[in-house]
Design a protein that fits this description.
Helix 19 crosses helix 29. By secondary structure, this protein is α/β, with parallel strands linked by helices. It contains 37 helices and 38 strands. The strands form 7 sheets. The protein has a 7-stranded antiparallel beta sheet, sandwiched between helices. The chain is globular, with a radius of gyration of 28 Å.
């Protein structure tokens, strides 16, 4: 069945910002869809609010709308672009929910409107509506857990009376398990059910009998119009039911199913996709299996490309999103060739002869107040994937890929925490699912507690037996001199995934000594190819993983190779923006004739797509693994080593820059990188240049930090070296707080485990510039010394809020022109002093007439994609060419480097925060970054662009109702303007006593005055903010953090607003921007324009 010629213009709905449960796997899938549909000759229109994704670059679609993903905005885009079809199945849950909202409005999927392709409204509703899905499964004879549906608490109580505790509550139309939970008591049930109803956009929950402890599986299924169905991959969770699959370690292919069980599951998956009615594309079907008797039930189905689809694609080499897009426009599986073999069609089910392990990464250290316990609601912010010939090898590679100071399954310095833990406490800890559980299990196995740990965790005995092989092997070499290890022993250690660092720890030697001894013994990795067919057909795509076997499959060539080190797992502070830069580097350098090689371990990203680079290595980003790949590439190029790019993937490759031969590093030298990253050296550089810094100094000990703080005065900002995302940065107001901060950095907490403080990693203690305006600059410098300023961004929030969590605008809105000129001059001087070759990001604080430099990062920053989309200049591509020797003038002549567009528009970047997943966390912003993603608003004025950015970020600005104001003393003058604008907008105002009294002095009366939470006593007549928010009397909260005396009140208000899903802002600057923007927006209708129009490309 050939491609459809009755449709020509297709709208793809993107997934929006990176949030927990919906990360850059949808950047990967959307990018594939855009590329393949355009290659087929279709006109592609893309709607997405995320500037950090490569799919929103103007080259990937014919029209790119970086606009809020709301039904109203999409309706305007559809009216403007008149698409023939809408493809929602590659935009995650966001895409599906928007498609259904548009269908219910009669805008898509009904006669006379654009057709829904990939999955129609009926299929989406059948899969996403819990009751309809349950009935559909029962109709075709598949088992589901005993359950009932509720749309209110009264209905929920009736269902519970019939089913009985314990139960699992699952809301309809949700993402990443949001609102799900397990209830073992009536009190828990009422809390989880209420939360689930609030989380579901249609206020529907499924209440089902608990099957916690059963084994959990997923099958990735594809179907075409001729009813051809294939299983792409089976995935098994290491953790039993009760932990969200996004938070579980998962393994592909499934390891513990019998052939009979697998075939039954496969048949059930085909029956499921057929009954739901997904005619074209991919789906994900989840099953649970009772380990006691083999009973199987269907849990749920996603009628779209899912988070697991990206994992399955990278695990097998089968491009699910690309094939799904082709199926959506009429092709059948047997008509689409397999890219990797070129000989088999997509209707051949992939077969793999290796083991893939996915391990999540969490960010609980960024969110004080969280319990860190895993459950049915997803909480991880990223993941890694590792490929090995065996499960032990794959598991250990995955654990060291996490970049959390662990080298594998224990056998490293991190296991010292178990030395004081007895067996009973160890088993008790392992019985609770947490990020540390896998290491606790490893320690229990080392102590011979295999039966006990299986009972405590319900992990399948097969996995425990496989992990026992690691434990047994470590016992063989522990305490043995490394020089006594035989070649056979080396091979066995490496085939079980042991890193050189683990062997060094067990043999009391250094990693360099271990590497030298291993290589002398002739034990070096060979690289195998991911081929989709277990080597039955030759693979044409060089997608590699390491093993310790005999045959090496890396092909030789004589072209100059460039190795690009990726950014590893997504995390707060290092996300998709850095993958964007790595991908652009690969594209630009391939176009320039270089052979590009990508090294990364993140399955969600475009960089780990097999056709992004000439060659892909799916390996951990550690010194050992990077040196191994350099050696393999050098050998394949006849002894000519590759150049290595370390400055595009964030802090991960940057920290490796000093651990590889310096002559291989492309662009800025490791010495210059260290000069900027080491706080002490950086201070000396700024002093030499006479560029002002906030007064301060560097410290390694508490005494040194105390002396600096005494000299410069409190409050002070504490900042470690070699971190990203403001990791462990704090504003401290007194000596006890400073001592606690230093203890956290040096001994306790995750940063201490990752290296702590040392002479090589000092901490900077400097005076905190309260009230200053922060400014970010991205620039490029070439070998001739020419510097191009990419963009100057003014932050909306004042200093004290991490730049990654603050809104910012291009061009600057309030900075005088002379300040911008000073900032540009300082940036050029710093770039020259560091001898930068490529990108540099410099951060400033403007206080009155003084411009202070805060820090410089001689690498790509998280703002590079935003600046590129705001200005039309492809900074990452230009920087990549500069790093390999091109000059900026040469790139101008080529046409790659152009002048920034002058379209009269303003671009605003806003952070997206994860607080809706963590109601127990205070939402006040500070110097440590906590956002998971970002959105962009673009319009003809700052106010309108700011409102768009808030809408895109999920902050619904009030158009009616009552706003609550509680401002600290420093913010009250600006609060006068906020109150005045709110009145002009017709909104009511409630305020605390202090804020209300201040406003009244200047003629701004409020509608009601409420008391402080901390001052309320039993029998008090005056209401407080917590009560008003809880009962729905407040539509918007403006609460700026107070001094230490009133912190508890503010924290209670912010947490209550978060728990009740009431939008709030915690800075007066954001409140001012919001009310001014709302006032502007009321003057005329919302407009939508494509990025190509803003850039003058149409």
């Amino acid at each position: 069945m050939p491609r459809r010629d009755d449709i020509h213009n297709i709208l793809i709905i993107g997934s929006g910002p990176i949030v927990i449960g919906q990360a850059c796997e949808f950047d990967y899938s959307g990018t594939q869809a855009c590329r393949v549909l355009r290659s087929e000759g279709y006109r592609v229109v893309l709607a997405n609010s995320n500037p950090a994704t490569i799919m929103t670059d103007p080259d990937f679609a014919d029209r790119t709308y970086i606009e809020p993903l709301t039904p109203d905005i999409l309706e305007r885009i559809i009216a403007r672009e008149k698409p023939d079809a809408v493809l929602p199945t590659l935009g995650g849950q966001t895409g599906l929910n928007l498609a259904m909202a548009l269908f219910e409005r009669g805008v898509v999927g009904v006669p006379g409107t654009p057709e829904l392709i990939g999955a129609n409204a009926e299929a989406i509703a059948t899969a996403e509506d819990r009751d309809r899905f349950k009935q559909a499964m029962l109709e075709i004879g598949l088992s589901v857990p005993r359950s009932g549906i509720a749309h209110s608490m009264e209905e929920a109580e009736r269902v519970l009376a019939d089913i009985g505790l314990p139960v699992i509550i699952r809301p309809a139309y949700i993402l990443g398990g949001r609102g799900t939970g397990i209830a073992n008591t009536l009190e828990e049930f009422r809390a989880v059910a209420a939360n689930g109803l609030d989380a579901s956009p249609i206020r529907e929950i499924l209440i089902e009998t608990s099957i916690v402890g059963w084994k959990e599986y997923e099958l990735e299924v594809m179907r075409d119009r001729r009813d051809n169905c294939v299983i792409i991959c089976s995935i098994e969770n290491l953790d039993p039911m009760g932990v969200h699959t996004g938070d579980s370690i998962t393994v592909a292919p499934a390891q513990t199913l019998s052939d009979h069980e697998y075939q039954a599951m496969r048949d059930a998956a085909f029956a499921c996709i057929r009954r739901v009615g997904v005619e074209t594309g991919g789906s994900n079907v989840q099953f649970a299996l009772n380990p006691e008797n083999g009973d199987m039930v269907v849990i749920e189905m996603n009628p779209r490309v899912s988070r697991s689809s990206a994992l399955a694609s990278k695990a097998t080499g089968f491009p699910i999103a690309k094939i799904a897009a082709k199926l959506a426009v009429g092709y059948t599986l047997d008509e689409i060739p397999n890219d990797i073999t070129l000989k088999t069609p997509a209707s051949f089910e992939p077969t793999i002869d290796y083991v893939v392990t996915k391990i999540p990464r969490w960010a609980f250290e960024k969110l004080p107040g969280t319990r860190g316990v895993l459950g049915t609601q997803m909480q991880s912010v990223g993941e890694v994937m590792a490929i090995g010939r065996t499960f032990p090898e794959s598991l250990q590679k995955g654990l060291r890929s996490l970049e959390q100071g662990r080298l594998g399954l224990n056998a490293d310095a991190g296991e010292a925490v178990f030395s004081s833990v007895n067996d009973r406490d160890l088993l008790a800890a392992a019985s609770v699912p947490t990020p540390e559980r896998i290491f606790q299990v490893g320690e229990a196995l080392r102590r011979g507690l295999s039966a006990e740990v299986q009972e405590a965790t319900r992990i399948d005995p097969w996995f425990l037996d496989q992990m026992s092989m690691i434990v047994e092997e470590r016992a063989v070499i522990e305490g043995t001199p490394a020089a006594a290890i035989s070649r056979a022993q080396w091979r066995r250690l490496k085939r079980l995934g042991f890193s050189d660092g683990q062997v060094a720890h067990l043999t009391r030697s250094t990693e360099d000594e271990v590497r030298s001894l291993r290589e002398t013994a002739g034990v070096v990795p060979t690289y195998k190819t991911v081929d989709t067919c277990s080597a039955e057909f030759e693979a044409n795509t060089p997608y590699h993983y390491s093993s310790y076997e005999d045959e090496n499959e890396v092909r030789s060539s004589d072209r100059q190779r460039v190795l690009i080190l990726g950014s590893g797992p997504n995390r707060i502070g290092q996300g998709i923006e850095f993958d964007y830069c790595c991908v652009h580097a690969s594209f630009a350098l391939r176009d320039a004739g270089f052979e590009t090689v990508m090294l990364n371990c993140n399955p969600e990203t475009v960089s780990t797509d097999y056709d992004t680079s000439d060659r892909l290595y799916f390996e951990p980003l550690t010194r050992e693994d990077v040196l191994n790949v350099i050696a393999a590439e050098t050998a394949a190029a006849g002894g000519r080593p590759p150049r290595v790019i370390v400055s595009l993937g964030g802090q991960t490759p940057l920290k490796l820059s000093g651990q590889i031969p310096p002559e291989l590093v492309a662009g800025t030298s490791p010495e210059s990188i260290d000069l900027a990253e080491d706080r002490e050296k950086w201070n000396a550089l700024c002093n030499r240049l006479s560029i002002p810094q906030p007064p301060g100094g560097t410290a390694v000990t508490v005494d040194e930090a105390r002396a600096i703080a005494t000299r410069v005065g409190f409050p002070v900002l504490v900042r470690p070296s070699y971190v990203l995302g403001g990791r462990a940065m704090q504003i401290v107001h007194d000596v006890p707080s400073l001592e606690r901060a230093m203890e956290e950095l040096s001994r306790f907490g995750s940063l201490g485990r990752e290296g702590g403080l040392s002479a090589e990693r000092p901490v900077l203690v400097d005076r905190f510039l309260a009230g200053a305006t922060e400014v970010d600059v991205d620039a490029i410098r070439d070998a001739t010394g020419e510097v191009v300023i990419g963009g100057v961004m003014e932050h909306v929030e004042e200093a004290g809020v991490h730049s990654g969590d603050s809104a910012c605008a291009i061009p600057p809105q309030t900075l005088p022109r002379w300040v911008v000129e000073v900032i540009e001059a300082y940036t050029r001087a710093i770039a020259d002093a560091l001898d930068v070759r490529g990108l540099i990001n410099v951060q400033y604080a403007v206080a009155g007439t003084a411009v202070y430099v805060i820090e410089a990062n001689p690498r790509a920053s998280r703002t590079v994609p935003f600046v590129a989309k705001a200005t039309g200049v492809p900074l990452a591509k230009v920087a990549s060419r500069v790093m390999l020797g091109a000059t900026l003038e040469e790139l101008r002549r080529e046409g790659l480097l152009t002048s920034p567009v002058q379209g009269g528009h303003v671009s605003v970047k806003e952070a997206v925060l994860p607080f809706n997943r963590f109601p127990e966390v205070d939402t006040a912003l500070g110097p440590e970054m906590r956002s998971t993603g970002e959105v962009m608003g673009i319009d003809r004025s700052f106010g309108r662009a700011f409102v768009k950015s808030q809408t895109a970020a999920g902050t619904v600005l009030p158009e009616s109702g009552t706003v609550f104001l509680s401002l600290n003393d420093a913010d009250k003058p600006a609060g006068l303007v906020v109150a005045k604008r709110l009145r002009e907008l017709g909104l009511g105002i409630t305020a605390t006593t202090g804020t209300a009294d201040y406003l009244a002095k200047f003629g701004q009366k409020v509608d009601s005055v409420i008391g402080k939470v901390s001052e309320m006593r039993d029998g008090a007549v005056m209401e407080n903010a917590v009560d008003l928010i809880t009962k729905g009397a407040i539509t918007f909260v403006v609460n700026t953090p107070h001094g230490r005396g009133s912190r508890e009140d503010g924290e209670a208000i912010r947490k209550t607003a978060n728990a009740n899903r009431i939008p709030s802002v915690t800075t007066v600057e954001a409140a001012l921007a919001a009310v001014n923007g709302l006032a502007e927006q009321r003057e005329s209708e919302t407009e939508v324009r494509s990025l190509q129009e803003y850039h003058g490309r149409v």
